[in-house]
Amino acid sequence: MTVLLRDAVEADLPAILRFTRALAAHEGRPEAVSAGLDDLRSAGFGDPRRVWFLVAEVAGEPVGFAAWSTPFSMYRGKGVLSVNTVFVEPAWQGRGLGRRIFAALAARAVAEGLERMEWSVLETNRSAIAFYDRLGAGTPPATSRRYLEGAALRALAA
Questions:
Q1: Which positions, given as ranges, span the membrane (predicted)?
Q2: How many of the other CB atoms lie within 10 Å of CB of 105?
Q3: Closest among 114, 95, 92 to 105, alpha carbons compared
Q4: Could you give the number of structural domains in the chain?
């Protein structure tokens, strides 16, 4: 099996959106995806660029992708490769594609002088957690991600 990992082009956006919807459905939250192609185009290819995409393809067909951004760590004084999403189609899981995607992201982080990679995982996703443990990933002590969205975000902004 020959897998090509490459930076996405705009023509990949329909596949990326399809994969995003499949991931949300897998997580039991299909209604969570409100993004459309224009949203992905603006974020991934607009100015300012907010996200980068990597596509995994086999025989010219996309079978997975990763999305990431690069926030800044005030504590470390360097950028961080923040992995937003990694998805491999179920038929291709268990063949090393996830590891290859994470390795490609790690190589990118090192080449760009970024301090670390970070990502979130659902506590119920035991197979993903076991995979991340095999990669040597750590869990920051005493942390819990928090967010504001919707009405709470607008209320605070007001």
A1: none
A2: 21
A3: 114
A4: 1
Torsion angle defined by CA atoms of residues 152, 154, 155 and 158, in that order, rounded to the nearest 10 degrees: 160
Q: Report the alpha-carbon distance of residue 101 to residue 110 in Å, rounded.
A: 14
How many residues in the chain? 158
Please state the pTM of the whole predicted model.
0.89
Contacts of 48 (CB under 8 A, 6+ apart): none
Question: Rounded CA gap, 13 and 65, in Å?
Answer: 10
Name the amino acid, one letter, at 59: A
The CATH number assigned to the domain holding 100 equals 3.40.630.30
* Digitized pLDDT (tens) for each residue of the chain, 158 residues in all: 799 999 999 999 999 999 999 999 998 999 999 999 999 999 999 999 999 999 999 999 999 999 999 999 898 899 999 999 999 999 999 999 999 999 999 999 999 999 899 998 888 888 888 889 999 998 877 777 777 888 999 998 89
Q: Which domain holds residue 123?
A: 3-157
Give burial (CB, 10 Å; 0-12/13-18/19+) of 22: middle
